[in-house]
Specification:
Layout: E1 2-5, E2 12-27, E3 34-35, E4 38-39, E5 47-64, E6 69-87, E7 97-116
Antiparallel strand pairs: 1-2, 2-5, 3-4, 5-6, 6-7
Length: about 120
């Protein structure tokens, strides 16, 4: 993560860049929404297992609470690339799809941080 502070470091408005990645195994609940090319309704009757990686940009604000303590709020927008295998239900079954690809563009970060400044 890299940040650019508009005024003083660790105080006020900032913009940043972030990278993210990880593994997931998700399914068995009704997402009830289709959002930015991602259909969360498919999680009701399928399980997805795979990995993801991506990057984005963010904007935030930091409030000074005391000599060493700050409160930050941050939101980010970016892209995620994912590869997954799909299974027929949340807890069982043979693979239905193998090594599929999905690209996501949209919100990738939301944070409320309590920060200790040395």
């Amino acid at each position: 993560m890299r940040r650019y502070w508009f005024c003083n470091p660790f105080a006020g408005h900032f913009v940043g860049m972030h990278v993210h990645g990880g593994q997931y195994n998700i399914g068995g609940f009704d997402g009830k929404v289709k959002f930015l090319n991602t259909d969360f309704r498919k999680l009701d009757d399928s399980r997805y297992q795979g990995w993801f990686a991506g990057a984005g940009v963010s904007y935030g604000y930091s409030w000074i609470l005391g000599k060493h303590w700050n409160l930050e709020a941050e939101i980010g927008f970016g892209w995620s690339y994912t590869r997954y295998d799909r299974y027929p239900c949340a807890k069982c079954g043979d693979k239905l799809e193998d090594n599929q690809v999905h690209n996501y563009v949209g919100p990738t970060k939301a944070a409320l941080n309590i920060v200790y400044v040395f």
